[in-house]
Amino acid sequence: MSRWRGLLAAGAAAGLLVAIVAAAQFGSATGDATTTGTVLIASDAGSTGEQTLSATAVAATYYVDPNKGSDANDGLSVTTALRTLQKARQVVDLNNGAMSGDIVVYLRGGRHQLAAPLVFGAGDGGTNGYNVVYRAYGTTERPVVSGGIAVGGWSDSDGDGVWEAGVPAGTVSRNFIVNGVPATIARTAGAPTGVVITSTGFTTTSTQLGGLANPANIEFVWQLAWKTKIFSASSIATSGTTTTVTMKQPGWGLRDGGSDTIAGAPSWYQNAKALIDVAGEWYLDRAANKLFYKPRTGEDMARAEAILAVVDNAMVQVTGTPGAPVNNLRFEGLSFQHSTYDRPQTDQGHAGQQSNATRSTLLGSDHTAPSDAAVRTRYANNIVFENGDFRNLGASGLWFDRGTKNSAVIGSSFTNIGSNGIQVGEFLRSVTAGNNPCVIPCVDIPTADEVSAITVANNSITRIGTEARSAAQGIHAAHTKGVIITRNDLNDLGYSAIATGYRWDDVAIDSGSFQVTYNRVRNFMKSGRDGGGIYNLGNQSAGGSSVVSNNYVAGMFGNYGGLYADQGSSYVAFSNNVVENMGGRAWFHDNAGAGGAQAGLTASSNYTDTSKANLQAPFAPTGTVVYAPGSPPPAALAIKNAAGLESAYQALLSYRPAYQAEFATIGGGAALPTPSGHGYNGTGALDFNASGGYVEFAVDAGAGGSGSIAVRYMLSVTTSRTVNLTINGVTQPFTFNNTGGTSNWVVVQVPVTLNAGINTVRFTSTGQDGGALDQVQLIGFPV
Ligand SMILES: [Ca+2]
Ligand SMILES: [Ca+2]
Ligand SMILES: [Ca+2]
Ligand SMILES: [Ca+2]
After folding, report:
1. Which ligand is nearest to the CA of 164?
2. What digits encode the pLDDT tens for the residues 414-462?
3. Which ligand is nearest to the CA of 273?
């Protein structure tokens, strides 16, 4: 079907999506001046100066500038931009009744702070077949849709290295991000001792617990085999050598259900000021409305960008109704950051189940439903996220929920996500009535409620499951039809990378006809066990059989198998996959027979460097080619090399957010005036002022190596200006050239070789002012 009006090539049958848009947003800064308003205005008139997906006319253009805009403006030009997304949504709603072309809302660089969830309803989408597009302005501006508040006014008056700052009364948060990097809730290194689980909590011989302040906010974390559970105390009391932890209810009563249950001590406990001892740990004292933090190397709390995530869960919602879905919305080039996940400190706790779904009484009983997500669509049609950056989020990243159809997430990165990266579909089950009964229909799902024809393509997913390392999955699709998961790169996961299905028998339900193809899956099961690189549960026959083919799966850290057909798996064909470096585990783990007859379950022409397979008759792979480790035959090598991101999206593998000059360390008379022009990222830019003025960045180059530093700046005088650029103590000149206007920012790449971990990058004036320095960004260093 033509879902995107020609925006995407209809290559799904071959498992291939053709990239229409260059991933210019990521790491391809070129040093030319293509970010100027002139070019963009031309592109609005149909020029190709900007990579635009749609060939349709633009009926209206609006601008949102979080630094220079005002909601009293008309929003129709860069100089009369609106300030908030909430206002832009209202303006669009009043003007989209009879569209004659797309409506484009350009988001300027900076942090677009949400005071409350941003909710798009049926009146906010495109009409007459056109789209409403929320798009980053230019290729080097990075608008951040943020559910957080900036925290300033830090002090360390007692000099103990733990800094503190006030927050608004009543602030609740479990996610704190400094200079773009998540901080860690203050925690113990290990488990309490002598733990005995009881119906009300547990007893322990660890005496520290009894002395901690604000016991009702202390959390206990169990990282189990494939579940993560987090509960908080209602009270803690010590008598003699025994400390009794009483947990909040009803959460503690829901702690189990199914297997993988709590039997012993929590893995650690967290969220008390006394537990701050390692750099990067933080604590929010909810009673005193104070935030405490022990800075990491290179963080200057007088300057650092300190963001406390305060919008709980779904900070962006696309929510229609069964009779009136939201249609035709696109989000292009946007970063979604700073949602939090408050539930572990509530009475419900986080009673995590498989796929980090959550058991709770919030849905009327003790039912299990998918994990919450920062961005969620429900009763929605033709919703597309492209070139996005989902980062530093409390729960899951993106969820195509009930009633979402013909939608996609393409060319986006998912990093530092609390729960799953991407979820597709809905389920609700009762663990007390057995694993399988569906609380909501899963056979004959009402048409309006179906989740179907979702494409997940060319995304990079890494370091997800920061809250639920042993349970979170890169991509989970369940109770859906026609889902295409293709060309994604998944790396560094605690549990299964791609998982489909959520039913432990082979009863045919409205689930199936999925394609998991051409993905590259690396380094998974690093925390949990009983998972796989590509994992399926249950019958996948609805709408036709399902396919897992041409994937490259490598680097397994815990059992059971690279490809895993779990209970009830049927009508899934595994073919032409390459599975290697399993660390002694099986290339194929078959447990399908435990839940059914394995009808339609096949494995053919797969390639692997291990002969180990766990199989249950009558299932038997055919045509398997086993080769010696390191010696794949040409056919396997071809599959391996073809898997993963298409070339236009390769830059996602090294995409790192920029470091803003205004949050770095400055000195020598340098200052941070608000730039007079538009289009800077973050909240400002650096002015060197006189000789000796400097800014110093502490940049994390990961494993280090060769790459470049992309410097974004503006200079609106005709004479070039040269400063010293000192990288790890070695100095070279850096010249700012005239960019032709105070709103014209350019990006110049400086080739560098960096050490692993933190490197220092300092710009210093040598006698005259420099340009206005906006940010630096590492290019080409794998994340
Ligand atoms: Ca409307
Ligand atoms: Ca202190
Ligand atoms: Ca600690
Ligand atoms: Ca900046």
Report:
1. 2
2. 999 999 999 999 999 887 766 666 888 888 999 999 999 999 999 999 9
3. 3
